[in-house]
């Protein structure tokens, strides 16, 4: 979806994670250092990391000493040096026009509309209040309470510190590596999916992935598909979200926008990723669901606009 040029995105819940020293970068081929991108969902210590596509487990390390990373402020200015480009880019993101021309600003703007939506919708649908989750945008790699975030982990939600981690380069990978189209809703879907995990965390549903981490009908797959459904739910209501001045964040959703979201949902299906990396499909190791299932649940949320329609845990069929 396209942002309204004059929408104010300056107060979004986003911080910069800085550039890590690990040299993660965006080197070609870096993503398959471990067991391939169709591998196990990434688990670190005892905490589930709900990354966006099936991770390869290659980038995670234990890092109990990184509490200093967490700051309650919108900008973790103390964490990064003055040369950090992501921080500078984020600080310069002010309007919807910025979001329409810059991926970093698009993340910031999408966080604003997603949080605006859930703040209103969650209490209505569940009686529970929404509490915010900061999105950490980084380049290369950065430390989270759930381990190292890098281009190997892809975007994920860390329940330990309730933050969403997004590699600033992931959106270009989403098209170049995974094959999604380059439309804005493809990218916005990624952000909305991760905030879907935050909603699951607030509702106490996130642990079910950990109890049953693999397989076509596993708790993990059901958790991921529900996050896709929540992303669709946001898309259903997204154009009604407004900034502090009452200006709508987004322009009307189009058929092309929906095609972009579905192209992204398809691109990160377990079957598609497995076929790409190994040439065969093994349902026993699925963590996120098939391309068709991910599309189906995004559409379920988008078409119904009903939280209850996203009950993947009690669905008899996931496709
Ligand atoms: Zn996920």
Give the SSE map.
Elements: E1 14-19, E2 43-44, E3 47-48, E4 50-51, H1 85-91, H2 96-101, H3 103-126, E5 134-139, E6 141-144, E7 147-150, E8 156-158, E9 163-167, H4 170-176, H5 184-203, H6 207-211, H7 219-237, H8 255-267, H9 270-278, H10 291-304
Parallel strand pairs: 1-5, 5-9
Antiparallel strand pairs: 2-3, 4-8, 6-7, 8-9
The protein binds zinc ion (ZN).
Structure commentary:
The chain is an alpha/beta fold and 319 residues long. It is built from ten helices and nine strands. It has one domain. The protein is 39% helix and 11% strand. The strands form three sheets. It has a five-stranded mixed sheet with strand order 1-5-9-8-4, covered by helices on one side. A two-stranded antiparallel ribbon has the order 2-3. Helix 3 packs parallel to helix 5 (184-203), helix 5 (184-203) crosses helix 7 (219-237) and helix 7 (219-237) runs parallel beside helix 10. The structure holds zinc ion. Zinc ion (ZN) binds at residues 50, 52, 193, 197, 224, 227.
Give me a quick take on this structure.
The protein is α/β, with parallel strands linked by helices and 319 residues long.
Secondary structure: number of strands: 9
* Global Rg: 18 Å
* Share of helix, binned: 25-40%
Output the helix-strand order: EEEEHHHEEEEEHHHHHHH
Strand order in the largest sheet: 1-5-9-8-4
Query: Termini separation (Å)?
Result: 26 Å
Number of domains: 1
Q: Report the major sheet.
A: 5 strands, mixed
Write down the overall mean pLDDT.
82
**Low-confidence stretches at least 5 residues in length (pLDDT < 50)?**
19-48, 55-83
β-strand percent reads 5-15%
From the helix content, strand content and strand pairing, which structural class follows?
alpha/beta
| Number of alpha- plus pi-helical segments | 10
């Amino acid at each position: 979806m396209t942002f309204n040029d004059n929408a104010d995105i300056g107060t979004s819940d986003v911080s910069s994670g800085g550039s890590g020293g690990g040299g993660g970068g965006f080197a070609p081929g870096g993503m398959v250092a471990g067991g391939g991108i169709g591998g196990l969902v990434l688990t670190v210590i005892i905490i589930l990391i709900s990354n966006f596509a099936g991770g390869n487990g290659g980038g995670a390390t234990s890092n109990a000493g990184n509490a200093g990373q967490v700051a309650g402020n919108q900008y973790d200015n103390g964490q990064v040096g003055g040369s950090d480009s992501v921080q500078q880019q984020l600080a310069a993101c002010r309007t919807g026009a910025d979001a329409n021309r810059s991926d970093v600003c698009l993340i910031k703007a999408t966080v604003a509309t997603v949080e605006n939506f859930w703040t209103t919708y969650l209490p209505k649908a569940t009686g529970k209040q929404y509490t915010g989750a900061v999105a950490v945008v980084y380049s290369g790699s950065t430390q989270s309470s759930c381990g190292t975030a890098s281009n190997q982990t892809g975007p994920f939600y860390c329940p330990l510190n309730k933050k969403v981690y997004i590699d600033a380069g992931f959106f270009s990978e989403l098209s170049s590596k995974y094959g999604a189209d380059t439309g804005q809703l493809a990218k916005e879907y990624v952000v909305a999916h991760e905030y879907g995990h935050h909603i699951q965390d607030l509702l106490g549903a996130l642990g079910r992935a950990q109890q049953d981490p693999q397989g076509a009908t596993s708790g993990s797959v059901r958790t991921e598909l529900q996050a896709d459904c929540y992303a669709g739910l946001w898309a259903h209501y997204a154009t009604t979200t407004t900034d502090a001045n009452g200006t709508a964040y987004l322009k009307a959703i189009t058929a092309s926008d929906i095609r972009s979201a579905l192209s992204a949902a398809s691109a990160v299906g377990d079957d598609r990723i497995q076929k790409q990396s190994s040439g065969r499909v093994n349902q026993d190791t699925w963590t996120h669901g098939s391309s068709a299932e991910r599309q189906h649940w995004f559409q379920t949320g988008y078409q119904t606009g009903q939280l209850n329609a996203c009950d993947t845990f009690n669905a008899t069929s996931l496709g």
